[in-house]
Amino acid sequence: MQHYTTERMRNVVLLSHSGAGKTSLAEAMLYSSGAITRLGRVDQGNTTSDYDPDEVKRKISIYLSLLPCEWQGFKVNAIDTPGYADFIAEVEAAVRIADGALIVLCAASGVEVGTEQVWGYTEEQKIPRLVFVNKIDRENADFFKALEELRANFGKICLPIELPIGAQQAFQGVVDLITMKAYINGQEGDIPDSMRSQAEEFREQLVEAVAETDDDLIAKYLEGEELTDEEIRKGLRAATIGGQVVPILVGSALQNLGTARLLDAVCHYLPSPKDRGPVSAINPSTQGEETIEADPTAPLAALVFKTTADPYVGKLTYFRVYSGTIHSDSVVWNSSKNRQERIGQLYVLRGKAQESVPHLIAGDIGAVAKLAETVTGDTLCAKEHPLVLPGIKFSEPCISVAVHPKTKADLDKLGSSLARLVEEDPSLRVHREPDTLETILSGVGEAQLEVAAEKMLRKFGVDVRMETPKVPYKETITVATKAEYKHKKQTGGHGQYGHVFLELEPLPRGAGYEFGDRIVGGVVPKNYIPAVEKGVVEALQEGVLAGYPVVDIKVTLYDGSYHVVDSSDISFKIAGSHATRKGLSQGHPVLLEPIVNMKITVPESFTGDIISDLNSKRARVLGMNPQGGWNVIEAQVPLAEVQRYAIDLRSITQGRGHFQMEFSHYEEVPAHIAQRIIAERQKA
Ligand code: GDP
User: Fold this and answer.
1) CB 3.0 to 4.6 Å from 80: which of 5, 26, 222, 307, for a disulfide?
2) Residue 100, SS3?
C-alpha cells in the first residue's frame, strides 16, 4: 500500500442492524477499489471481513475487522462491526476510533432497532455520518419508505444526494442530485423524464439545507442565484462534518451497485483525522490536559482498541495513532501501565491478511504482535512526553454463567484461558463466587458467552459446560433459643469432656455473625472459649435446613462445665458445634435469598409488559421515572428470578431495553418456594 498523508485518510466505521449488509458492503468496497480480486459472499463464508471460524460458522460478524482500501488518492480504513447486541464491545471500540460512520440500512426493512441503537452511538460520539440504503435489488425494497422512516426517527437532516432509478429487479442506477445527471451502468445520461420533477424537488431540499449552514452560500441562495456543483459539494462536506446533514446514498452490496459512488462520498464528505479536530489527553507527569493534533511530527499518542490472543501467533494489539508516528522496531511507553513496550514489526491488517509497514502516522490504524503488558484501552506514547488518551467505555455485563471444566486437564487450564478471553473481550468478566465456589463468567448476552465457550475449546483446548450459576442461599433462625451439649467420653485412660450452654438469637438482616461470652466464675476456663467458638463457626457453615451457611445470628456461651483432666480444645469444639446445630433446629430456621436492585430502561410503550413480567418474578417495583419517551423502572427482585433477565428483556422489548443490577440484601424465601429448594438440595 502506498503512503498517504493524514489529510488523505478516512477512518469509517460500518454500522447497522444485523443483516443489513455491512459485511457484504465492505467486501464490495474492497472489490471496487481493487483491494481484492474476487467478491466473497457472506452466504459462502468467504468474505474478507468474516474470516474467523466463529463467524464463518454462524454467518454473522462477531468481531470488528479492519478493511483498508485505496480510492482516488485516499486511504479508506473501513471498519466492519457486528450487528448483534451480544458483540457490542466490538462496536463500542470501533466507534471510539472512527472519524466517520457509514450507517447501512436494508431497503426492505428500513429503520430497525439496531439502526436506532447505532445512530445513538454516533450521536454520543458526535461522529459525522453517511447512510447507505442497501439491498435496493431485493423484493419489497422501497427507498422512499426507508427515507421516510429515517426522517421520522432522526429528523430532516437525512437528505438523499441520489435517488434510485427503478427498484427491486428493475433497479438500474441513480440520479445524482448534485450533477443532476442519471448514472446507469456507469454511463452518464439525462434524468428520465418520469423522475425529473421529483429529482428537482429533492435537489431543492438538499441545496437549501446546505446553503443554510454557510453564510456566503445562504446569501447567494436567497438572492436566487444558482450554487455551483463545487459550492454544493463544499457546503455539503462542511455540513456533514458538522452533523447538520446526513447524506443518503443507495445501491446493492450484493450486486456491487453504487459502491464506487459510495466510496467517492466517503472521501468527499466524511472527515479526515485532521478534520475531526484535536483530541484531549492527560499528561501524567503534569496531570494537565493537553490537546493533541493529528500531526505526524507531534509526540506519539496511540490508543489500543482491541487485543486478540492466538495460541500460535501470540498476542496481537490493534491501535489507532492519534498524533505523532510509530515505527517498527522501536520502543514506546505505555503510559496507562507505566511500562516500556518493545515494538517489533508493525502491520496493516486487511481481515486476516497482514502487510508489514515501516511506520504508521497520525490518523492511521495498525497492529503489532507480542506486546508484553499492553491491553485494550491503553495509550502508547513517547516516554519523554507521556500522554494518556481517554479509554473506551464498554458495556457492563448483565448475564452470568457458571463455568464447569469437563475434565481435570480442563480445570488446570481454565484460569489462564479465561484470562485470555477477558483480555480479548473487555465486556467479559470472570470471578470466583466464594459462597458457591463456582467460577462465574459474565457478559452482555447469551451468544457472546456461547462463543466464549467455543473459543476456549478451539483456541486453548479447554472444554467447559456452562450452567446458570447457583443462587447463594443462606439460612438463619427466627426465634431465640437455648441449647446445651455435653461431650463426654470417659471409658478408661485419658477421656474427653466439654460441656456448654449456648444462647442463639436472630440478628437483623445483614448483621452477619456475632459470638458472645457470658461465662462467669470460670465454669468454662478462658483458654477453652476460642475452641467453643471454632465449633460454633464450623456448625454455622452448613445450616440444618439445606446446608447453606447460617448468617444474621448471635451465639452466646453463657454456661458450661469442665473436667480438670479430660477437658481439651477438641472436646469443647465438639460441644460447641453440636450445641449450635441443636439450637439451629430449635430456632425455627428459614432460608434467605439474595435480592438485587434493578434499574430497567425501556421505551415508555413497554412499561406495561415490563411491570407484568416483573410481577411474575416476585419483584417489588419501587419507582418509575419517565423521561424523554423512555421509562426507568426501579425494582427489587430475588436474584433467582432474574439470572437470565438479559434474555427476557431482549425478547419483551425486541432489544430496545437495557438494565443494571446490583446486590442489595438478603430476604426470607417464601415458604412454598423454600420447600422446593430444600427438597431439590436434599435430592442432590
Ligand atoms: P451484516 O450483518 O450487516 O454484515 O450483513 P451481511 O453482509 O452479512 O448480509 C446479510 C445478508 O444479506 C446476506 O445473506 C447477504 O448476502 C445479504 N445481502 C447483503 N447485501 C445485499 C444486497 O445488496 N442485496 C441483497 N439482495 N442481499 C444482500
Assistant:
1) 26
2) strand
Mutate to test the pocket of ligand 1, among 18, 30, 39, 42 (most ligand atoms within 8 A of CB): 42
pTM: 0.85
- Report how far residue 533's alpha carbon sits from residue 576's, in angstroms, rounded to the nearest whole number: 7
Q: Which of 375, 442, 397 is nearest to 452 (CA)?
A: 442
Buried b (16+ CB within 10 A) or exposed e, 512-538: eeebeeebeeeebeeebbebbbbbbbe
Q: How much is the average pLDDT of 618-637? A: 93
22 Cα: distance to centroid of ligand 1 (angstroms): 7
Does 413 or 490 have the greater pLDDT score? 413
Neighbours of 433 (CB within 10 A): 14
Q: Distance from the CA of 40 to the center of ligand 1, in angstroms?
A: 12
Residue with cell 434499574: 599
Residue 453: strand pairing partners: none
Taking CB atoms and a 6 Å cutoff, what residues make up the pocket around ligand 1?
A: 16, 18-24, 42-43, 60-61, 83, 134-135, 137-138, 252-254
Q: How far is CA 327 from the centre of its chain?
A: 31
Pocket test for ligand 1, best of 30, 104, 168, 254 (most atoms within 8 A of CB): 254
Burial-class residue 313 by CB neighbours within 10 Å (0-12, 13-18, 19+).
exposed
pLDDT tens, position by position, 661-677: 989 999 999 999 999 99
The single-letter code of the amino acid at 302 is A
- How far is Cα 541 from Cα 61, in angstroms, rounded to an integer? 47
Length in residues, the chain: 684
Q: What is the mean pLDDT of the chain?
A: 93
Q: Which long-range contacts (CB under 8 A, 24 or more apart) does 645-652 make?
A: 645/398, 645/399, 645/598, 646/398, 646/399, 646/444, 646/445, 646/446, 647/399, 647/446, 648/613, 649/600, 649/602, 649/610, 650/85, 650/445, 652/606, 652/609, 652/610, 652/613
The grid coordinates listed for 361 are: 502516522
Cα of 21 vs centre of ligand 1, distance in Å, is 4
Does residue 560 or residue 46 have the better pLDDT? Answer: 560
Residue with cell 436506532: 116
Which residue puts its alpha carbon closest to atom 19 of ligand 1? 21
The per-residue pLDDT for range 295-314, each reduced to its tens digit, is: 999 999 999 999 987 766 68
For residues 115 and 207, the answer to whether their CB atoms sit within 8 Å is no
Query: Which parts of 490-534 are beta strand (E)?
Result: 496-506, 513-517
Give me ligand 1 centre to Cα 99, in Å. Answer: 24
3-class secondary-structure state, position 103: strand
Nearest CA to ligand 1 atom 14: 43
Dig out the grid coordinates for 374 from the structure: 499492553
Report the atom number in ligand 1 closest to the C-alpha of 20.
3
**Which residues fall within 8 angstroms of residue 216, CB to CB, at 6 or more apart?**
none
CA distance 280 to 379: 13
DSSP one-letter code for 7: G
20 alpha carbon – ligand 1 mean position (Å): 6
- C-alpha–C-alpha distance, residues 50 and 40, integer Å: 10
